[in-house]
Fold:
Amino acid sequence: MLYLHQFKIERKLMRLNKFISHNSKYSRRDADKLIEAGEVTVNRQKVESFSYDVQEGDHIAVKGMPVKERTELTMIIYNKPKGTLVTKKDDRGRTTIYHKLPGKFRHFIPVGRLDYASEGMLVMTDSPRVADVLMNSGLDRTYNIKIDKPLTPEMEEAMREGLVLDDARAGGHEKSKLYSMEFAPFIHYEIRGATENFTKLRVTIAEGKNRELRRFFGHFEANVLDLKRVGFGGMELNNLPTNKTRYFTRREYDDIHKYLKAMAQQEKQDKKEEQDRINADRLKEKKANQEQDRINRAKNKNSKDKNSKDKKSFKK
Structure:
């Protein structure tokens, strides 16, 4: 078992409903209803503000039962089936991964998302902090995809060079408000099968933006027929059956340990550099102010000396 204090990851402020969701059986919507009903207390005081950020040392309780931040780190890989949403609840009553997952994993947080029609590897953890670090990382994501067109030179050039679209709605969800998108160059791609009507590819990218691959190929009027994530950050789905989970292997835990430790050290270094920059700017400003004060004092002295001379001349 790994513990979060081993990584010294900075604890970021978290909204109360999110804290409850990540550390209990309740969803965020459940948490909102509980807050509204006065069933949630912070440091034994009822909280009615949905915008409250949980502070270090706060004691949170729901219906009198304490909600404690989990300190152990457990990581699993889940092979998400098609036709499931990566969310805790859906207003339209559609199936979510939490309907499929064993009860002991229903408080786990997915690292990133796969859309309703996609399948494959979801890394999940019981630590919101670790999930946040991994979601915002540049770790490789590998996918097997099938598009309904032959691969064109224009597609390959865009995969190699990257692509910036002012209108990236093709391939996106019809209700999405996201219009423009920048696509970084693919880390790797290979053709795994091709006919006149379709192309099978394995692609590796370093981001996981909203329906990124569907939007990328949608720009070239190609529909993604199948999309399956098979790798993340050097970990692989391999032969894990659909809708099954497995724990990380020791090697995978070791790799995550090294990565999180490196990220913590980088964050510490970035903070130090930022503070050094702030201190340098303050010192520069202080010296500039001192120099300006010296100039002003000299001007005032010269002015007084001139006035004194003028008065002496007038007396004569």
